[in-house]
Amino acid sequence: MALASHPAYQLIEVTVRRSRIDGFGVFAAEPVRAGAKIGALTGEAISVAEARRRAQGRQRIMLVELSSSRAVDATRSSDPMRFTNHSCRPNARIAVEDGAIEFFALQEIAVGEEITVAYGATHHEGRLACRCSQPGCLGWL
Fold first, then answer.
1. Alpha carbon distance 16, 28 (integer Å)
2. How many CA atoms are closer than 13 Å to the CA of 83, on its beta-carbon side?
3. Whole-prediction pTM value?
4. Closest of 117, 121, 122, 120 to residue 134, by C-alpha
5. Cα Rg of the chain (Å, integer)
6. Which of the 8 DSSP states describes residue 108?
7. Which residues pair with 103 in a beta bridge?
8. Is residue 53's pLDDT more than 90?
9. Which residue has the higher pLDDT, 138 or 22?
10. Which has more pLDDT, 97 or 112?
11. What is the average pLDDT across 41-45?
12. 78: which residues sit within 8 A by CB, 6+ positions away?
């Protein structure tokens, strides 16, 4: 069986629209199984130093650090997953492996449900208010 036809390698159909969390978000356009790969993120390969320079003074960025020296700027990416918002109780996770940035469902996600991840450490360093409104929200990114 070819990998592209294997269910674990098929990407989930998603839509981008306004989010109650912040700006735009990415939403499931079909039911998502727990553990399923939802999508991937690509962008401009840059150094971490350049990523941190670009992040200064900006609230909305689309940067992912791949290692202590490499990062990806997805600001101009056409991948819908660049609109994935943070939640303190996410339904998906980001996996960074061998330079690939991929999103996987932590639980079943219903059609129309916003796909969210926990950003982890950010350039905001606890200074940006979290807007996820989830029970147990930490309040800051």
1. 9
2. 19
3. 0.81
4. 117
5. 15
6. -
7. 39, 94
8. no
9. 22
10. 112
11. 90
12. none
| CATH topology (fold) of 3-39+78-117 | Beta-clip-like (2.170.270)
* Pairwise CA distance, residues 90 & 101, whole Å: 17
**Of the candidates 8, 16, 7, which has an alpha carbon nearest to the alpha carbon of residue 80?**
16
Q: What pLDDT is recorded for position 138?
A: 81
The predicted pLDDT at position 58 comes to 66
Q: What are phi and psi of 118, to 5 degrees?
A: -90, 120
* Contacts of 104 by beta carbon, 8 Å cutoff, 6+ apart: 35, 36, 37, 38, 92, 93, 95
pLDDT of residue 59: 60
- Whether the per-residue pLDDT at 101 is higher than 70: the answer is yes
Token pair, residue 66, equals: 């791949």
Residues 6+ apart with CB under 8 A from 131: 21, 22
Residue in the block written with tokens 């639980």:
107
From the CB of residue 88, how many other CB atoms can be counted at a distance below 10 Å?
18
